[in-house]
Amino acid sequence: MAAAVVCVLVVLLALLAPWITPHDPTAVDPLNAYAPFTGDHPLGTDDLGRDLLSRLMAGARTSLAGPLIVVLAAGTAGTALAVTAAWFGGWFDAAVSRLLDILFAFPGLVLAITVAAIFGAGFTAPVVALSLAFVPMIARVMRAAALRERNLPYIEALRVQGFSGWHICLRHLLPNLAPLLVVQAAIGFGYAMIDLASISFLGLGLQPPASDWGLMIANGQPSILAGFPQQSIEAAVAVVITVVAFTVVAERLAERFGGGVR
Amino acid sequence: MTMLEFDHLRVEINGRPILRDVTLSVAAGEAVGLVGESGSGKSMTVKSVLRLLPPGARATGTVRFGDTDVHTLDGAGLRRMRSQDVAMVFQDPRATVNPVRTIGDFLTEVLRDQGVSRSDARTRAAGLLADVGVDHVARRLRQRPHELSGGLLQRVVIAAALATSPKLILADEPTTALDVTTQEEVVAILNERRREHGSALLFISHDLELAAAVCDRIAVMYAGEIVEILPADRLHEDARHPYTQALLRSRPGTVAPGERLATVPGSPQSAFDAPAGCVFADRCPQAAGLCRDVRPALLPIDSGLAACHLLPRETPSVA
Amino acid sequence: MLLEVRDLRKVFKGRFVAVDGVSFSVPTGGSLAVVGESGSGKTTCARIITGLEKATSGTVTIEGERRASTVQMVFQDPYQSLDRRQTVTSCLTEVLAHHTTLDRAGRAARSAELLNLVGLDERHGPALPRALSGGQRQRVAIARALAADPKLLVLDEAVAALDVSIQAQILNLLVDARAATGVAYLFITHDLSVVQHVCEDVVVMHRGRVVESGTVAEVLSAPSDPYTRKLIGSVPRPGWVPTREVNRVC
Q1: Is residue A106 part of a domain?
Q2: What's the CATH code of the domain at C52?
Q3: Residue A236 belongs to a domain with what CATH number?
Q4: pLDDT one-digit tens code per residue, A117-128
Q5: Where is each ABC transmembrane type-1 domain found (chain A) (predicted)?
């Protein structure tokens, strides 16, 4: 319950950030660098005197949008692949399974870093690469569930009725797999967030003056040596709280839906 | 001598009754059939003998095995009872036998546990298999469960159950998963071996005719209560409870072709859903006002006992 | 003949012969039982006739125009043969929308009629399968099969998973439904005693072959094949004494 509240709060903050940030997140104020926690700057300021709370709120947008796109893209592609493989079976299913196994063996983060290094740092390249890397993770689970579901007698009953494969998959198979997909997406969201933060931290994601959380952790590093660790710590805490909240919600959903098949 | 006795056994799981009131005894060497539909609580009755109740279950009343109250047994006593005195045969033999070990391992495990030497245990296991009609014994001992048909595997389970010459066998739908021709064989074997060992049998089934063929007495259960007990050979003549009669009439083999089968309206209830008075009142075609509110006692009528307000009682008696 | 099955043969994985030269037929509005134990090939026959499986050789001919809805099927397991997310009404109207030209109101009226036919009423319409008992679910499955207005209904062990008292209700329902709609039955079962209530003709299958066929009355009262005799003898009945064979055949 608390985790769900945190999730909603984080999402709301991200959505409303442009209107509710107390300060302009990119407004530099060198005289106010490393300001202590005050009413005006509840989380202090960074080395350039920018308000950290505002930067965290603004950063929430890209920090959440990245994983969201990854999960949506990988979820759609993975489920489509899983359902077609399970539906047609035979050599097609075997080929898809082998392909997924091979992709699964290749670490997603490394793939994303490589792609970002080749195509240039930014928001798009790592997100696209990570989406690809997440397809096998989601597709493998969904294929197993789709296969189980496909072999239930009600699917045969629908086939005897003369319904087309399209109709059965879209109207019956997919809706019954939906709970499991939601669970998988919520779990994937946490992983994607950490991966994207890592990429930003390595400097291959968004570039300054953006305030992506991973980037904030990296940018705060020099200040740690200067005795002001708040930027890195605060951004790291934001990542941890969000990831934990989403993972806990995913676990609860998984318990409730029992993996999607009764 | 009474081997097993349920005395006002009541089982609740998280406050919901599963068994409302079960009173039944099985004499030494006697076979009693416990018959009922799904949800009647027949499996739970049997499980309570070995204290195999699910978590959250609370049992009141007593279950006596010999002269010990099962609920008072300590860990060692319970293990002794489970491993030597009482044997259990379940519906699905595949769920009972470890799939990765050989039939020989499965059979000798119990014997070895009782200090029989390895080679003796092998010989005895082979003898046990031959007794239950398994062919190619030497080869079977080396095989694993998936290499045997359901019928063969259930014979192996029966052989293992009888290995220790138990005083009591609990059989929970032992032939439901088998074909009818195999069922006949397995039931015949169970019957024959049981008589040879002098074991008592509590036989659970949904099939009245099958239970009547195997057992000396039949107890009919509905919604967590025993509604009628009668001698197996008087089943058709003396069944007096409306539920027993309905069960007998609804079997397709019992009426002439083309005739309609007698049906009971509604579907089987659990102890939780059944009315407070007579458990069958909701579905009984003859239920009167008294039936819903007052619980009928299990009273003697003809050759058996029946719990029904509507039956004529020869002498007004108090339970 | 409504259904003609000729020399049906099905070989799985190039080795296991599940069905071996099986022929039988069902007259229009008739009722044929295919009786056998596990491994007899009776379910494979049913699956070939409904199009779920392809025969290795042999023919299945259905009289008249071939449409998807001519042959329908009711499955054994009432707990898994309905979509757990779909209400009873939606389950029926989906079929009606697919097979008929009825408009929305017409479909609603027809599905109410179907529910009525199988002994359910409008209260059950919005229910999900999990709110229904096994017997009620099987009634829904029968209504769904009848919704397509089939000429042949294949019942694959359709009463085997039900409690005795419920089984009797469903058997009576099947008799009534045939009288009301004129649909023919192909009744796949292992239980000979069930057959005489729903069927006129019977074929007995054993290890992929037909060992005996005839009218139910003939076969049940005077079985000629030893396997049929054994099968009839194995059904528990009053005065029945289970015996084991001396030669220990499994």
Answers
A1: yes
A2: 3.40.50.300
A3: 1.10.3720.10
A4: 888 878 888 888
A5: 60-250
